[in-house]
Design a protein that fits this description.
Number of domains: 2
Number of strands: 10
Order of helices and strands: HEHEHEHEHEHEHEHEHEHHEH
Oligomer: single chain
Shape: globular
Number of helices: 12
CATH superfamily of the largest domain: Bordetella uptake gene, domain 1
Helix content: 40-55%
Distance between the termini: 60 Å
Length: 328
């Protein structure tokens, strides 16, 4: 075959490939889509997934099933996603803990959050509320920092467990502002927050859902939120960074809809576009805010990749500094 014939054959093959990719995008979805939240039913993450799954179903004219896959620190759902075909019909909803903390925290991680998955949409942040025992003479974050520094090592904070986002967020604050606080880990978030209200520990970073009723009843005093912007459910609370003049301070969990990295780019683009449109709708943003979460704009896929990488470096570095690398 001469060189001209080779070029013609190569061009034809490329055209066939482009046509196949275009057809894939046009045909998608042609059947049911399954979304697997890595947390249990009834959690804020799960509720948000069901809200946008309904909208995706309407957009695509196909059934979108939500099938919770909690367990083993997210590994049950991650394993199910890795075992599924990379065709966009099986997706997972993960958290910052799975994507940015556990790769450093765990002894053995059977996934690479950068290489194995593509982020369709990081669409919400889950900030914490800094709460203190209301019997303490602390009314603001500067008050808290001053009070702790005057009593090095004498105060404690609670969390839902070693290596979890609330624990690491408080350690991040400690390092940032030079605080000496003892850590009191619990097995779950409600108990850790209840013991702040009972006066057994001085403070905690609490999830909004677990703490807002206690805040309203005066059993906890709320000082700030850990996001870089205000939380709609508690608009009077300042961002922690703003309260102390450190506007780059942010310590949040986040939720991401992900697919296998080998998923066709056209399918990723279609899903990304729909999620961006759905999450920008005022009604959807309000419904997300009403469950104590912070809706955010869906960035480009590449921007999301960079954010996940930066979060992995931030929290992975802290895990290592704390001597927790490979501890779980």
């Amino acid at each position: 075959m001469n060189s001209i014939a080779v070029r013609i054959a190569g061009t034809a093959a490329y055209a066939v490939l482009l046509a196949a990719v275009h057809a894939h995008a046009q045909d998608y979805p042609s059947k049911q889509i399954t979304i697997m939240p890595l947390l249990a039913a009834g959690t804020g993450l799960d509720i948000a997934v069901r809200l946008y799954a309904e909208q995706l179903s309407k957009s695509f004219g196909k059934t979108v099933v939500v099938e919770n896959k909690p367990g083993s620190a997210g590994l049950v759902g991650i394993s199910a996603l890795k075992a599924a075909p990379a065709d966009g019909y099986t997706l997972a909803v993960t958290t910052s803990a799975v994507m940015a903390i556990r790769p450093t925290l765990m002894k053995s991680v059977p996934y690479d959050s950068q290489k194995d998955f593509v982020p369709i949409a990081i669409y919400v942040k889950s900030p914490f509320i800094l709460v203190v025992d209301p019997k303490l003479p602390i009314q603001s974050v500067p008050d808290l920092i001053k009070y702790v520094k005057e009593r090095p090592g004498k105060l404690s904070y609670s969390s839902s467990g070693v290596g979890g986002a609330p624990h690491l967020s408080m350690e991040y604050m400690k390092q940032r502002f030079g605080l000496d606080l003892a850590h009191v880990p619990y097995r779950n978030s409600p108990q850790s927050i209840a013991d702040v209200a009972a006066g057994h520990v001085a403070m905690a970073f609490a999830e909004a859902g677990a703490s807002l009723p206690l805040i309203r009843d005066g059993k906890l005093r709320a000082l700030a939120v850990t996001a870089s912007e205000r939380l709609p459910r508690v608009p009077d609370l300042p961002p922690l960074g703003e309260a102390v003049g450190a506007k780059d301070f942010e310590a949040v969990s986040w939720h991401a809809l992900i697919a296998r990295s080998e998923t066709p780019a056209s399918v990723v683009a279609k899903l990304h576009g729909e999620m961006k449109r759905i999450m920008e709708a005022p009604e959807m943003r309000k419904r997300i805010a009403d469950i104590g979460l912070l809706p955010i704009g869906v960035a480009s896929v590449e921007e999301q990749r960079r954010y996940i990488r930066a979060e992995g470096e931030k929290w992975g570095s802290l895990v290592t500094k704390l001597g927790l690398q490979g501890s779980q």
